[in-house]
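User: Predict structure, ligand coenzyme A.
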Amino acid sequence: MQKPSKPVSQSKTTITELMIPSYANFGGKIHGGILLSLMDKVAYACSSKHAGAYCVTVSVERVEFLQPVEVGELVSLHASVNYVGRSSLIVGIRVEALNVKTGHVNHTNSSYFTMVAKGDDDKPCTVPRLILENKEEVKRFIEAMHMKEIRIKVKEEMDDVRSQIAVEKASELLKGERCIIRL
Ligand SMILES: CC(C)(COP(=O)(O)OP(=O)(O)OC[C@H]1O[C@@H](n2cnc3c(N)ncnc32)[C@H](O)[C@@H]1OP(=O)(O)O)[C@@H](O)C(=O)NCCC(=O)NCCS
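Assistant: Predicted complex:
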């Protein structure tokens, strides 16, 4: 039986968390891993709400930390389903850090998590179709479709590159690179 379609708005999710000192690295800024873990949580919450099933993280696109996050800032992670396939969903996540004293909000990064919904048999299950209710949602769906195509192409190209690497020609290939070969 096909699950009823759902609008993007129904699964939009935000998690807000205070950046406490134990989250910091030796430089006093927040560990990237803390943010990745929060992003994974919000992607899970958002995708599972849409799917009506447990979801697993399959791949992550574009993780770039554009600005450091400071201890004491309130980090909000805004997630929405940008795209659905049969069992996969692409969740867009926007991370913002609020300095509570100044009110300044930094957009620290945007990332895309591909999640797959699983049924009780632990196999991928069909997710509801996505209802797009404004131009921005249509744009994000199309962008995500392209992102998926590009990811597949990059994987194929990298497989090709990997299979053609000739270690014997490394000294020629690596001329000018900042490495020393000591085989
Ligand atoms: C993801 C997983 C379910 C795919 O299983 P599979 O038997 O290959 O299933 P399928 O080939 O039918 O793929 C299912 C969906 O995953 C998508 N998918 C598979 N590999 C993918 C990848 N590397 N990146 C993005 N999507 C991927 C497929 O495109 C498909 O999407 P669709 O149903 O919307 O068309 C399986 O590899 C898995 O369970 N991985 C572990 C995930 C996990 O536990 N994550 C937590 C981190 S420990």
